[in-house]
Amino acid sequence: MYKRGYFGIKGLLAVFISAALSVNSMFAVLAEDGCMSGDQAAEDYMADGYASDEYFSDECIADEFLTGNNAAQHPFGENVSYTLSGKTLTLSGSGYVSRYCLPEELPFNVNDVEKLVINDGIEQLDSSLFEGYENLREVKIAGSVKVIGNSAFACWAGDSALEKVELEEGVEELGSSSFRGNKALKSIILPESLKVLGGGCFESTGLKSIEIPAGVEEIDLGVSGTPFNSCVDLTELTVSAENKKYDSRDGCNAVIETATDTLVAACRTTEIPESVTALGPMSYCNLFFEIWQEEGEHVFTVPGHIKKIGERAFGANLLDRIVLEEGIEEIDDLAFWNNNITKLEIPASVRYIGGGIIDIDEDEYEGVF
After folding, report:
1. What gap in Å lies between CA 226 and CA 211, rounded to an integer?
2. Mind spelling out the 3-state secondary structure of the chain?
3. What is the mean pLDDT of residues 101-128?
4. Cα 235 from Cα 233, distance rounded (Å)
5. This prediction's pTM
């Protein structure tokens, strides 16, 4: 007999209440410091796309950042200079490029910028740094830049123009949602120096193919899911044969954690190899099966050699039906959340079922219990 997990509405409320208390406490600290009101801190935080800790660092909550007094002279930080020649914005200097002011407060119109060059010497790009540069088409980033911050080039609404990104050797980390939403971005070559892919770093882009380089040693999920969440045009997803942590065995068009035989990121052409024993959290999340198959019932079959289906593995795909073959042993919380599934047959081999695996009350399940 299988065990039931518990992830009901009380659990969800507890998570949200805990998160809210933590955020409110942080805003209260900012208010006590005299930097801004708690309400203003919360408003700025939300507007900034849930900015990372760097947003609230001593440097970034300095008076110059809040009042804009220093924006005209040093809009990107005291050690960073900029030039705008025609439609090309060039940043030079050293260290950390900060988001000292919002796009509308900059001493130039961000809509005039079509090309961005980050010169050698810069080491890190702040979170949300180039959000709002709607006409930016081309980006070139020097290898001295080790970290590209969360949402640094993200597009959260509407269309973006960004279609070309050149990352020189030396870049090591792409933060969560760093290039999210840039639908004009169809391809990118990742440098061999890259070590970390943040959750959703290419979410909702127009990528058609990508190879994970040999140096990548961490593929993060975070709130945004896999780096390729909602990449509905992605059909070629491969890993360098030299990578020691991940692989794309048997031409499967997926990313697999080698040591655990866990599929961690899929695309719409993924074929699950028989050697794979688990589907990782959010591995198939937000791939929107109805876009791939316009007619008929949208069905996915999980083969019996898969022993574990991770949390939210198939979330938000609008599937009509999912077939679970005999051999599956564990189904984690919200595994098939936000689909059109009204009936789910659980094979006898299953020993654990998490909470909220489909979007109807347990007493409305058909053919399950």
Report:
1. 15
2. CCEECCCCHHHHHHHHHHHHHHHHHHHHHHHHCCCCCHHHHHHHHHHCCCCCHHHHCCCCCCHHHHHCCCCCCCCCCCCEEEEEECCEEEEEECEEECCCCCHHHCCCCHHHCCEEEECECEEEECCCCCCCCCCCCEEEECCCCCEECCCCCCCCCCCCCCCEEEECCCCCEECCCCCCCCCCCCCCCCCCCCCEECCCCCCCCCCCEEEECCCCCEECCCCCCCCCCCCCCCCEEEECCCCCCEECHHHCCEEEECCCCEEEEECCCCCCCCCCCEECCCCCCCCCHHHHCCCCCCEEEECCCCCEECCCCCCCCCCCEEEECCCCCEECCCCCCCCCCCCCCCCCCCCEECCCCCCCCHHHCCCCC
3. 93
4. 6
5. 0.80
User: What pLDDT, on a 0 to 100 scale, did the predictor assign at position 159?
Assistant: 81
Q: How confident is the model at residue 102 (pLDDT cuts 50, 70, 90)?
A: confident
- With beta carbons less than 8 A apart as the criterion, state whether 330 and 3 touch: no
* Bigger pLDDT: 68 vs 225: 225
